[in-house]
Amino acid sequence: MIPEMALRWARSLAQQKLGRVLIRLAVDLPGGQHLYCAVAARLAPMERRIFVERSLVVLTQGQRRRMAGRLARLMQKPRSIGVLETCWLAIAHAAAATTEASNLSASAPGQLVAEVHANTNFLFARAIAAYETSRFRDAVAAFCAIRDLARQELVQRFQYLKAAYAAGQVRDRALAAEFFARQFFFSGFTFDAVARRDFEEKLIQGTLATASAELQGHSCRGKSTRIGVFFLSSTEALGHAILDPYYFLVLHAKRFDVIMFIGPPRAAYRPASRVCLDIVERYGRYIETTNDVMLNLSWMNLGGVSQPPLEFTLEQFGEGVSAVGRWYKSEKIELGSLDLVIENYWSLLRDAVHRACDVNDAFEHNAWHMKLPESYGLIGEAFCFRHKIDIDKPLVVLHARADNYHGLEKQAFRNADIETYEPGVLELLDRGYQVLRIGDRGMPRLPIRHKNYRELPRLPGYRHELDPYFISKAAFMIGCQSGPCAYARALGTPLLSVNAVLHYTLLPAKMEMACFKRYKLIESSKLRPLDLEGALAAGVHHFDTTIQFERARVRLEPARPEEIKAAVKDMIAWLENPDLPETEHQLRFKAAVEHTAQELARKGRELDNPIADFIGISLPGYRISPTVAAMREAKSVDRGHGPASGKVEHGIQSGQ
User: Fold this and answer.
1) Residue in 451, 442, 457, 449 with CA at minimum distance from that of residue 398
2) 3-state secondary structure of 108
3) Which pTM was predicted?
4) What's the per-residue H, E or C state across 331-370?
5) Residues 310, 332: Cα–Cα separation, whole Å
6) CA atoms of 304 and 347, how far apart (whole Å)
7) Mean pLDDT by 10 residues, the chain (656 residues)
8) What is the SS3 assignment for 152?
9) For residue 520, which of 504, 499, 534 has the smallest C-alpha distance?
C-alpha cells in the first residue's frame, strides 16, 4: 500500500509544471504506472479526467505507447474502479499513438460501472479515443451519451467543440449545431427548433457586433446588398490559411456583393501563414476578433445562417455653434442581407467535388485562381536583382516536408528525405531550369553547388512573401502535399507531387502529376508491394494518422531517387505537350480512381466518415508518372510476385 502522505505529495506535484516533467520520467520506471494509477484513483471523477489529460500531455509518443500497453494489461485485473477508470482515460489520451485504444470499443463491464460517474468516465474515454483516431461516428455516439452527464466539464475542457466537429464530419449539421450551442449558449436538455433559432440569432448578433464598423460602411443606401461572411482561424497551418478561403471564394463568391472574413488578430499568425491574409484580402475585408465563438466557427460544418435585410438607426451627438450649443442627428440605415457561411475545409472540398461531377451544375474546378498583391511583385523583383535570379528564365520551386516540420508525429508518413531529390534537381539544372527551394532554415541542406540552385530561406533578405511570388512565376512546382503546395493549387501553377500519399481531400492543381510513395503490406513480418489500385481498394485514401496505417499493417516508403528523376522528366514532357495521350498505367489508375469515386458516392452516409464520400483526384487534371508506374511494375515482376490485393486488416474497406 502507498502511504497517504505520498499520494498527497504526488497529487500536489502533478499540479505543477516541474511535477508533470517528473511524471514523464517516472512512468518508465518499474512500477511507475501503478503509482500513477494509485494517485489518479484517489481523485474525484472530474479531477481524475483533468489529471490524466494534463499529465499525459508531457509524455512523448513512445512513452504513451509503452504506458498504454502496460495499462491495458493492468486493466485486465484492476484493484479498484478508480484504477480501471484511470486506465480507460490514459489509453484514450494516448490513442493517437497506440492500438490499445481499440480496447475501448467494447462495452463496459456492467458490474464495474454500476456507479454513474464510472459509466461517464468510460464513455468519456471512448469519445476521446474515437475522436483522436478519426472514428467520428463512434465519437459522436459517445459524446451523445454523455452530453447531459458531464456538462460542466465538457464546457470547461471545450469537449463540446470536439463533439461538434465530429458531428460535422458525419454530416449531421443539426447535431453539430447543438453541440456548438451547448459549448457557448445552451444549457438545457432538449435542443428543439426554438433553441436552434435562438442559437442562429446569437451567431448573427455576434457577427454584427464583431463587424459593426465595417457593416455600416456597406449600408444599402437605396441598393440591395448581399453580404457574405466566412470564418478563418488557421494561424499555424499554411495550407488551410490559403485553401479554405480559396474554396469558399470558388464556391460562394458569385452570391455576394460584399465579402468579409472574420478571424484572429494578425499578430496571432505565424509569419508564413500571415502572408496568406494579404492574398485573401484582395477579395474581401479581414476583420480581427478575439471572440471564442467567432474563432471556433472556422472548424465547424454547420451550413449557412441567413439574416434578411436589417434596418437600424444611427444616432450622432456633437457640439456646435447654435442656439443651444449642441446638435443631434438621427438617420435610418438599411443593412443588406447577411449570410454566414459556416463550413470547414472538408465540407468545402466535398461540395467542390460533387458540384464538379454534377452534369447539371455549371461549376468547374480550376476555372478561377487567385492573384497576388502588387506589392509581392516589387518584393520579388528586388530579391531577384539582389541574388541575380533571372525571372524570365524557366524556374521550378521545390518543397519537401522534412522530419523537423512542426513535430506532428501522427502524420510523419507525409515526410520525405531531401537527399533522394538530388538526381531530379540535377536533371532540371542540366536542362537549364533554375531551382529555388523553399521551406525553413531548419530543413536539411541539399549538397548541390550550382549557380542556378538556391535555398531561399538561407539567403539574405528572404521574406515569406517570396514563396507565393516564385510559385506564381514557376514553370511548375515540386511539392509533397504539404502547406506550400497549396499556393500552387490556389494560384493555378502546375504541380509535380513527389512522395504523394493517396488521400480523399486532394483536389488536383491545374496540371498535377504524382510520384507516390511506395505502399507495402506487412505479411508475416515480410513486406509485399501494394500497388495503387490495391491501395485504393483497401481504403488507404481515408487514412489520416499513423495509427491507421499501423492497424492495417501498411507501411509507406519514400520514392527512390531514380523514380523522382523519372517523374521530373515525365512532368516536363507533359508540360511541353498538354495533349500527351495517357499510357496504359495512367488509364488503369484513372479507372481505379473513378471506380473508387462511384463506390464512395454510393455508400455515402454508410461510411465511417460520411463527409469523405468523395475522392478529389477523380477530377480532371490529375495523372500519375507513367515511367514510375512502369518501373515499379517491372520490379515487382522481377522479384517473382505480383502486387498485393486490396485486402488488409481491421475492416478498412468500410472507409474507416
Assistant:
1) 457
2) coil
3) 0.87
4) EEEEECEEEEEECCHHHHHHHHHHHHHCCCCCCCCCCCCC
5) 10
6) 12
7) 53 56 63 75 77 73 70 69 77 60 53 58 84 88 89 86 97 97 91 94 94 73 79 92 97 95 96 94 96 96 90 63 60 80 98 96 96 97 97 96 60 79 97 96 91 96 97 96 93 97 96 96 88 94 84 91 98 98 97 97 92 97 97 79 50 33
8) helix
9) 534
